[in-house]
Amino acid sequence: MHDVLKVNMMANIHDENDHIAAHTSEDLAEQHIYAINIMGAPGAGKTTVLKNITKNLKGLKSYVIEGDIESDIDTQDLRGIGIDTYQINTFGACHLDAPMIHNTIQNIRFDKKGILFIENIGNLVCPAEFSIGEHCKMLISTVTEGSDKPYKYPLAFEKADVIILNKTDLLPYIDFDEGFFIKGVRALNKNVTVFKVSGKTGDGFTEVAAWIRERAANFGG
Ligand SMILES: Nc1nc2c(ncn2[C@@H]2O[C@H](COP(=O)(O)OP(=O)(O)OP(=O)(O)O)[C@@H](O)[C@H]2O)c(=O)[nH]1
Ligand SMILES: [Mg+2]
User: Fold this and answer.
1) CA 114/CA 135 separation, integer angstroms
2) Per-domain residue ranges for the chain?
């Protein structure tokens, strides 16, 4: 009988990742930068939401790191409206990790205090498993995805510090059971703040921006 050495690879990967993430988070705080990890399915409105928040964040500068498997479409879009944006392409990987963010922030000159939005890869599963140095995890969910998503993709809802329910302008056209959605959210994450917004009309974003300003003012950065 041979001895078998069991190595928990995932635990090792997570430990190393979390160590780097903690470093990044401290580094950003020292530079008075509050970092938000924006997660959500492809097309949920991550870029649209961050654009709407930015418009309402008077007095705080917005920086963005765009995570995409390929392309720089969102980065070009954001740079086009004057937002300081940096691209990461993972070329296949389904989530951002702490070393990617650690490396990218070495290239950013944070000349004013503000908010760093990190748009994760469009995916409702993997990004929730990895800390990347953020001070806040923001989950974008949408009425078009259906009200059962907290039940089917629990980790993202469990880990979120704030949930943005987007595309509410489309409510008249679809069946979305808000009570069922909220019940699922509360079962996983009792106290998480939930905002209902429309990235198309801009409704709800003054409240989201106020919430972020409050968090950014009190996070110790
Ligand atoms: N009707 C409606 N459309 C929206 C809303 N928010 C975003 N959209 C549309 O949804 C599509 C996807 O929006 P994006 O902001 O690109 O979504 P994303 O999550 O950044 O997408 P990826 O980066 O590709 O994962 C676009 O056509 C947006 O115009 C909304 O509140 N209402
Ligand atoms: Mg996007």
Assistant:
1) 13
2) 9-217
Pocket test for ligand 1, best of 38, 47, 48 (most atoms within 8 A of CB): 48
Q: Write out the two tokens for 149.
A: 């998503």
pLDDT category at 101 given cuts 50, 70, 90 is very high
What is the average pLDDT across 2-28?
85
Q: Which ligand is nearest to the CA of 127?
A: 1
- pLDDT on residue 95: 97
Residue 204 Cβ contacting ligand 1 at under 6 Å: no
* Domain 9-217, CATH class in plain words: alpha beta
- Ligand 2 center–CA 45 separation, angstroms: 7
Do the beta carbons of residue 88 and residue 111 sit within 8 Å?
no
Cβ-proximal residues to 2 (8 Å cutoff; 6+ apart), any chain: none
Handedness of CA 157, 206, 118, 213 (dihedral sign): negative
